[in-house]
Amino acid sequence: MSRPAEHPSHWLPEMLRSAGLARAFTLATLGTVFSGHAIQWLAGLVTYVTIVAGLCVVGLGMLVARRREISLWRLLPVSLVVFLCWTIISVFWSVSPSDTVVGWVSQVAVAFLAIVIGHVRDTLQTARALGDVMRWLLSISLGLEILIGILMRQPVHWLGIDGNIARFGPVEGIFGSRNMLGFVAVLALVTFVVEWRTSSVRPGVAVYSVAVGGVMAVLSRSPTVLALAAAVGAAVAALALVRHARPHNRMTLQWSLGAAVVLGLSAAYVFRHQLIAAAGPDFSIRANLWRVLSFYVRFYPVQGFGWFGPWPREEYPFVAIDFSLGKQYTTALNAYADLVLQIGWVGTFLFMAMVGIAVIRSWLVAAERRSIVYAWTPLILVTLVVNSLFESFALFGAGWLILVVCLVRAGQSRSWRERLDAVESAETLPPRR
Asked: What is the pLDDT confidence band of residue 19, given thresholds at 50, 70 and 90?
């Protein structure tokens, strides 16, 4: 006599709570969002949106199944909620309310996937998943560049790959542009080194990962890679200095480093024109774009023109900016400039406060805890902050996904939530006799 089939109400919650599904969901989400350009090129935008929507449904089921494990207070960072509320409020003064709603929904969908990852995976598991995805995507990118640029007699423009690897770049891989490839390569290198230091992968895999990440970063010939590498290197040195300092000297050292960062940023702003002139033609193009953009910012400096994310080509003022420069841009090539243009100085302040709080929290945790895995979050945040000076990747897509993951990770430590949990734990303890 055969056993009766188990009722779905029994096995489905167990599957949604399982560690195997959490790992598969994290890999699928990271792989989908980082491969967004390739998926849209091969199968179209509708396919990509359908995959993301399906992942959101699975993620919602996972959170519902784990509702007893997840505290409501820890589910969402307050700063993220405030920022997203401001972006949707901008629909009331947006030049195109329908585009604002579409841009906001896509931003919230990616943020939701990141929130699920932040609650079903810890920091090491998240870094390991990102490392696995980056190994595959960078290896595929390198293989396709070799195939199209060297092995094929007649190079084809497939997946946006120009086939310049025989001339040592610039190459794009499956990411659509050399700047996106450079950004992904730096994120991958940070993750690969953390994997290496935590012995999460075999030494051979670690060496291969760092090698392929470094090769793709160099071949991208992205003008931002050098700046990102310098910023991450400085952050690594500063964090190592703080971690090896004596506890009673650590706070003074932290304040000194903070003051040095503020002075450095102030000096860079004062001498920004000289720095842009010395940086070469790529940054001169950005400077011209920012100069034209600053004219339109003056119309609505407080609230902006409304949230869009990537620029809609037919809407004002984006079409006017493109016409003035004789080129078509999809972003301001600067996340902060995009924020000022779209959601004004208020939205820019909320974004900078959100990211700044996360950087400080994650930095302090990494400075106090001995495991090197805690350095992953602040180093990734530093990469995102510096890259935002040259690109708008942190506002949507893969950059936004990783940013929200880091916000969730940082929000789970050194916040009012820990004090609230401590109070609740104390109240549940039995009274002493």
From this structure: confident
Domain assignment present for residue 427? The answer is no
Same domain, 134 and 152: yes
Mean pLDDT of the chain: 85
Specify whether 150 is located in the same domain as 253: no
Report how many domains make up the chain. 3
Question: Domain check: are 178 and 238 in the same one?
Answer: no
pLDDT for position 67: 82
* Nearest in space to 34 (alpha carbons), one of 110, 107, 106: 110
Q: Could you report how far apart the first and last alpha carbons of the chain are, in Å?
A: 58
Output the pTM of the full model.
0.90
Residue 3 in any domain: the answer is no
pLDDT at 1: 43
Place of tokens 């291969």: 208
Strand partners, 161: 158
Domain ranges, residue 148: 123-221
**Mean pLDDT lowest among 52-66, 90-104, 248-262, 348-362:** 248-262
Q: Which residues pair with 158 in a beta bridge?
A: 161
**113 CB neighbour count, 10 Å cutoff:** 25
* pLDDT at position 60: 92
> Of 253, 272, 254, which is closest to residue 264 (Cα–Cα)?
272
**Is 229 found in the same domain as 95?**
yes
Tell me which range, 9-18, 62-71, 306-315, is most confidently predicted by mean pLDDT. 306-315
Does one domain contain both 256 and 308? yes
The C-alpha atoms of residue 14 and residue 6 are separated, in whole angstroms, by: 12
- Helices first, then strands: H and E counts in the chain: 19, 0
In a domain, 422, yes or no: no
